[in-house]
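Chain A, query sequence.
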Amino acid sequence: MPSTHHVNLSYLGLLPFLTLTGGYFFSEAPWILQAFVIYSVSILSFVAGSLWQAPLNIQTKQGKNHQQNNANSLDESIARSQSVTQAWLVVLVTLPLPLGVFVSIEFSLLWLAGSFVWLLLLQKRLPNWALLSKEYQQMRAKITSVVLVCHLLMWAQLSHLGAVA
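Chain A, predicted structure.
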């Protein structure tokens, strides 16, 4: 699939965030908030999983080189180590998600918002970030910004409802 299709699909992925955020301001129905959190967790998990591609590619490449009796260079070893470390940092963000049932929804919204930003910052540190098109890099930053704002708006609305009640 050409990169423009990936970019278009990524922007379409914002529609549920925007629709649910707008809908919650109009109706404040609990199911909208629940749907927002479920969609957010799903997308966060998807984005986190996609970041494992770089370390797995490096590991596969090194495995092939090793099978061909080629010595791994120090640079490849360092790149692999950094990529694997960053991939595990992705897990640290998503690992506590099931525990969200034990904390307030306000905390969950803030955790999710921070997690999207965390994943973008980690992705920018991956060795393959520079290989990605400028269009993709800009799209990724824009989408993360919109998702962050949606989470903060949901949190603000929820906090306002709590203060009013």
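The two ends are 50 Å apart (CA to CA). Residues 65-71 have pLDDT under 50 and may be disordered.
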